[in-house]
Write the C-alpha cells for this entry.
Amino acid sequence: MQLIEHYAELYRRWKPEKEREEVQVTVPAIAECLHCTERNAKLLIRAMRLNGWIAWHPGGGRGRSSRLRFIAELDGLLLEQAEALLAAGSIEEAAALLQSPLLTERGRERLRYAVSRFFGYHIHTGDSGRRHLLRFPSYRRPGMLDPAYATRRTELHLIRQLFDTLVAYDAQSGQFRPGLAHHWERDAAARRWRFYLQKHVRFHNGAPCESEDVRATLERLMPPERPGGSPYGRLYGLLERVEPVHEHLVEIRCRDSCYGLLSLLASTAASVVPRQLPVNWAFRPEGTGPFLIARRDDRVLELAANPDYFMRGTNLDRVEMWFLPEMYEKVPMTTLLSLSFFGHAPGLRTQGGFPLPQEHHGIADISGANRDASRLYPLYEAESEMGGMNFLHYRETGESAELTETWSQVEQADRGCKYLAIQQRRSGPLTDSPALRSLLYDAVRQETGIRLLGGNRGELADRFVRSPLLAEYTAAEADCRAGGGGSASEAPSCDRAGWPRPECKLQLVTYAGAGNERDAEWLKQALAPHGVAVSIRLVPYERLASGEVLAEADLLLLEQPADADDEWALGSILGCRQSPLRSCLPEKTLRRLDSALGRLAAEPLRSERLLQLVRLERELLADRSVIVWYRWRQTASYPSELEGVKINAFGWVDYRQLWFRESGSGWSAEHRLTDAERSDPG
C-alpha cells in the first residue's frame, strides 16, 4: 500500500468537521486503522509530516492523545502523482488513478484534464531530428487486423494505414487510380485482366511484394467458402484463378464477365498480404502501407512511418492509440434515459404515439444524486466507436472547452448508418404481422427520438450509404415507380390497426459500444406503452453472426460502416456472407437477392450496376426487412497548426495526410497563400 493510501485511510477515519481543524488521536488507534504495528505507524506519520501532508503534535507520554491536522488535499495529491507519472511516460498508471475511490468528482475532472494534455499532436527534437507524434486514447482495443475478416470501422481504418491494394478508389474523381499495380488492362468481355505491379515494393518485414503475394491474397477470398472463411468470400465468386506471369505481372481470370472487378480489388478485404502468414499474424500484421506496427500490447497500438514506402511518404512519424477505458467516465442509464421521456409523466407531449422531449429535461442530466452504480454506460459516448472518435479528445474539456481562434473544426455526416434488422427467417410476430413491423418503423423513424438520445446522433438515414450519387439514383428510381403508376414513397403504408395485441415479447440483440446500449434502452422504453416488451441482450461483436445468437434474436441493432466506393459499400452490405442483414432475410428473399446480385457483374456500365444495387436496397427497405435509423455527426476539433485534417469514409482522419505548420518568427496566417493562389501565375 502506498503512502497516499495510508493518508486516505487516516483522512476518512478522522476527517474534521471544519477544514484544517486539529483532531485528537493516539498512535495505537492509528496502527489499528492502518493494520500495522505501532512502530510502523510512527514511521508512516513521520513520512507524512516530512512530505508536508500533516501537522503532528505528539502527546506527552505513552497512551496519551496526540494532535493531528490534515494539510494536504487528496485530490491534489493524486493530481501530483499523476503528473509525475505522465512526466515519466507512465500514461497507463496515470490514467488508472481516474478509477481511484479517493477522488472527488471535481478531482476526477481535474485529473482527466491533466491526463488529456498528454494526448494530441507533439513535436520532439532529438538526435534523429524533429519527430512528429500523434497520440490519442481509445475506449476499446482494436481487434484482429486481417483484411479478409475485418468488418468494424476502427479495424477497417487501420487496415487502410497498414496495407495497399492493387488499385485504389479516388472518391473525389470517382475513378480508380494505381496502387500496387501501376497499370492494368482487360479483354473485351472483362473475363481476363492483367495487372502490372510496382517494382521495389516491400512488406514491412522486408520481403518483396510480388505476384505470388497477390495470388495468395485473392485465393484467401475465393470460393469455395469454408467454415471460418472470409465473410467477403461470396463477393469474389466469379474469380476462377489467379496466375502469376512473372514476379511483377499477374493475370486474373473470371468465370464470366466481371466489369466490377476494380471495386473488388480496391476494397479493404483485398489488401495485399504476404504469401506466408505466421501464427498470430493478424494481431501484428505486416503490409506494404505507409505505416507499420512498431508496438502492440494490452495498452497501446503504436504505428511508425514506413521509411521504405513506395508512394509519397507520411509527414507523421508515429501514431499511438492508447487503450484507456478509464478516460471514459460512466454514468447510469436511468439518468441518461429518464422514464418521464416515455409516457410515465403527466402532461407528456407526443407525436404519432411516441414521446416528444420536454424542455426541462436533458440526456446529459447526470447529477451526482441520481448516480446508480448498478448500471453504468459511457458518458463520453461521442468518443466511442461511432465515427466521433477521431480528434475530439484532443480538445480541452471543462472550463477551457470553448473553441478559440487557435482551433479549427471539420464536421460531416457518417457515410454509414445505425440500423435495425428484423428477423423474418422463422415464423413469429415479426414475420406474421406487418402491423408490428410498421410500429417498429414508426418508433425508429423519428427525429424527436434522435434529439432525445442526444450525443453525436445526427440526421435520419434514408439509405445505408450516404452518397450524393446514390441519392440521385434513389430519386430516379422513385420517379420511375411513380411514372409507372406505382408509389414514389419510400415504402408502402402499413396499417397499424392490427396493433396493439396482447403483449408481444421480442429479444433485441446488439453489442456493447457505438452507443448501442443507449439506443437499445430507448427502443425498449419507447415500445413498452404499445404492448411490446423488449429484452436486451448484449453479445460480443464477434458472436453476432453465430447460429445460437441468431436463433434467439428478433431484432438486431447494428452499425454499418461504408467505404468510399459506393459499389463496394452497398454490394458488400447486400452480399457479404456473414452480413447480419442477410441472416434475417427469408430464404425466398435471399434467393431473389442473390440472383440479382449475380447478374450485376455482367453489366458493363458502373452507373447501371449502382442503379440495380439501389433497387435491391429499396425493395428491402420497402418490405421493412430492415429499418435504417440515423447517421453519426463526425467532428474533428484540432489545433489550427495541424494541416491535412479530413475525415475519411470510416470517420477517422487519414494519418498519412497530416503535417504540422510551424508558427512564430513573425510568420502568421496572413502570409499564407491558398492552393488556388499558389497555382495562379498572375
Q: What stands out?
A: The two ends are 72 Å apart (CA to CA).
